[in-house]
């Protein structure tokens, strides 16, 4: 027999690295630990920036109590904490962190830099760490110590090169986009639960914010801001309490009208983000009686249990906790949810499966096939008749719009514009799709533009193309949705995404051939940039620099590109840094100039100006985002837009949608496959199915 191998004591660095790998499994775990530390420090604002999915860099900044200079040397050592004194304290722990392993674990697998300032400090102190120890950032003979620097009250932690010394773990991580999605999930859940704290999450170096909540927002407002208003509108408040079990539950659940394919479950036990398989299954069982098969609800639940009944020290990442009377508590919550859902069963809304144009709701029978192949003299049944006469009335004929109550001068102007449009249609050459060349255009031989046009053609959806070419306009539902008929089916068109695709394609189609839309008076780029930076949408923070310097940079940057912008896009910028004109992408259509400041800022920050093709693509996308129809487009009067000629006041919004946008959809739009999947086009009725309902009545 072989001699037994001797037992050796592992080096401390190996022990620490193994422990760190258990606590920090991916970038999202590091963000979770640091967010919890910020909350424990009493922060009211927490800002998170991420680079390359968190693998390259994680940056979190708060305005909490901060870390004193005296504590900085040991803050990254293992088992150093301000929240636990003895083992007995675990039975009454109410804070997030308590073991003192979060920062220590991170420092063993990444390069950590902490900048912190307390309430009584005159300045901030900066310290760098490696393997839990304070290291010197400058060459000096003495021991390393925190260095004074400028900084706001609170703590900023910068984590770089995560898992740089654990190659296997780093290679096992999925792509940066997936890791960033996990970080968004963690920050979103904490943002919903912590109503007194404002959260911000964005990718490093970008102005667009992916998660933003305000410190004074309610639970429902946070859910709407993070997960969407579609969920917030369908929420029901639930609560229950059992003093014998020492538990109290509050939360929000979606009603039976809402369902998704993936169970969205936000569970906090004593304000700690955890998961409970038994509770998840119990809730899903209740909803199975209300929702379609393989669909699930959205649940946000805050459960408070007496600290004596909870063991929080059962998982390295604190993702799971154990608590007493689990079966009884789950049963109590399940019954509370079931009682709430029973009370809303009388106001159910049912939705049918959306079908793309050209597909049938039911399998076609042999009789129907033979009927379509029969001769024209055979009888055509009522449910097979297709309305195609353009002289028939639209839906608006049965409703008196508010625009008809305007003055006689507005009526006369509208009639004159309508007559001129009809005259133009009869004399001008018709508008053609991207697959054909336009007349009276100077030719463009740029390979980059031709490549972008070819990409549009490659993404064409044939069935949707037939719908837009052959549709019959029915009427407007509101300012962003319209009804059209295609064959025997009725479709609801959401105009935002469709017009965004239309204007993107028009920029490519009319490249370097735009007529100028004069701004009177010209708009100062500097003032526009300042207005954009004042908007929350810009994502501006004090770290980005002063607004005045950023606005000046935007003016200088665009002024250098002025010749190209004017030649290719009819976007003229004068020597004073003022915007003189914009391109006319569609006759009789004026963009909403209230969105002009953000358009100017996004041209500077969101467009890749180094590569020709990516530059043209980025500019075209920004124009499409600026020109597209949104819910507030028609709320702005033409006089407020300072645009000549002023048409928005003369033309009612229904007229613009029917006689300007939809004719362009018919002639210019090449609908992409994305429109078939994002809900922009929904089938809401089919004549054949309606006749079956009428026959049963």
Automatic annotation (TrEMBL):
Keywords: DNA damage, DNA repair, Nucleus
Ranges of compositional bias, category Low complexity: 407-420
Organism: Amphimedon queenslandica (Sponge)
UniProt GO MF annotations: ATP binding; ATP hydrolysis activity; ATP-dependent DNA damage sensor activity; mismatched DNA binding
Gene Ontology process terms (BP): mismatch repair
Protein name: DNA mismatch repair protein S5 domain-containing protein
Transmembrane spans: none
Domain DNA mismatch repair protein S5: 223-342
Family: Belongs to the DNA mismatch repair MutL/HexB family.
GO cellular component: MutLalpha complex
Designated gene of the protein: 100641464
Region ranges (Disordered): 400-441
